[in-house]
Please model this.
Amino acid sequence: MNSDNMMRKKALLTILLAVLLIQGISYAQTLPVGMPVLEDSYRREQLLGNRDSLISFTIRPLFAGDQLKSGMDTLSAENSLLKFKSRLSWSGDKAYFQLLPLSLQQQYNSLLPYDWNDGALIPAKGNQTQLSFGAFFKYGPLSVQLKPEYVYAENLEYEGFPSEQYDVVWAKYYQNYFNVSDITERYGEDPYSKLFWGQSSVRLTFDPVSVGISNENLWWGPGRRSSLLMSNNAPGFKHLTLNTSRPVQTPIGSFEAQLIAGRLENSGILAPQENRVYNGQSLYIPKRDDWRFLSGFVFTYNPKGVRGLFIGASQVSQMYHQDAGKRISDFLPVLLPFESIEAASIRDRYSSLFFRWVLQEANAEVYGEYGHQGKQFLSSFLKEPDRSAAYLLGIRKITPLNKRPGEYIQTSLEFTELQQAYIPEKGGWYTSSVIRQGYTHMGQVLGAGIGPGSNLQSLDISWFKGLKRIGLQFERYLHNNDFYYQMYNDPPDYRKKYVDMSAALSADWDYKNLVFSVKGAMIRSLNYQYVLYGRTPEYFHTGWDRLNYQVKFGLMYRF
Model:
């Protein structure tokens, strides 16, 4: 009898496995966040009406499928530079192996670190190189994407927060920044070399749900230059994920969602001049040497009958892993909006509401995001919506060139504001007196790369045709105004604001399997690091200004 039961169980298990293998679909390969040239081209194509209007582009990485090609698919033989087969298939394409693109990113900063949303690259002066390669394997619902990243940086010495600043300024900066975040100024004194898991994952995918373990970068929200909660500013982090692999259509509209639980690592690098003393006390306060547990969710809803409108919400929560107990709220606090004061006191929360409206008839999009830092999102929002808040607003318009079919002019504008309306006692967005590494991973912010207390205005004007693009970008980057108002508000000294003004020329081009990208930027730092030397009778006096040149070059080969 036991033998018969065992046989029945084995038969049922075999049938179930066969059903799963039959039902497994190809929505497993992903288009990595920040994939040069390809990722934004798909979003442009949606504005032109050439891509599925149900894809929100607010939860990334995007999954490859009938609605959206991955950009990593094998090209036809006549378009290939290298004449060999990079994809091998079995069992009628239910199982296959494919080489992923080989990509090289080169960056050079002449004087100071600059730029963000560059994943595993670090803020550094001098030359820096990132090499990415890999392969994808699929068998039924099981998929393995191995795409590691290697980074090498000269990491040359540069002047960070200046030694010449007064001791009281250093004390305030430690209180506002270094002691409440793990945002690394310089990654040691030697050249930097590190191999990352990169955009790698192992998944089980069943239409329309995918579950697995991943190290991929995530991007939540509608922003293009910034995201308040999750971006590719830092390297990817290890996480478990449960997410939709395509928009799920229902009688009331379509939905996309993701739930994650991950591990955030510390940089292990001390703040500069950690032995500095003020009023007999050391400025540096050691942080807990413990990794942090991160949980988060994001969902987007497209109401039925309102084409192109996406509204969504996201939330993340982090705590030291040694503080996690056995309560479900310790591991999935995002699912429990109400919790005890004791439980809330050992974690940080960030929440956001966002929208994106695609107007395909006008070849345009409008989007925005409101973020809040704190435990009680609803009550705080109703009482003081501008306290502990951050904002993002953007618009993009594509204009066809009537006399040149297939060619377009793109104009986009985006504003990000992290500066606090009320001067925070100890830091602002992405800093914390509870989780004193702040909202960071390996020394870089996980959200908007401009960092705590900063604001950004970005204007982009481009010509494009397919993947080919030539554009101009102008930006104003106001650094950490929270610190400025703490330090120089009584009386206010507007000369000491630290602002970067940048102008950049960039181009993308493709030829058969090859995709090129290049960018040259000139960045003028006005009153670098809030330093104003000399005292003159005139109010306006030149500060410590700096001129930095940046050159970026990218090359990708799609097998």
Notes: The domain at 2-557 is CATH 2.40.160.130 (Porin). Residues 8-26, 70-78, 534-538 have pLDDT under 50 and may be disordered. The CA atoms of residues 360 and 550 lie 35 Å apart. The chain is about 10% helix and 40% strand.
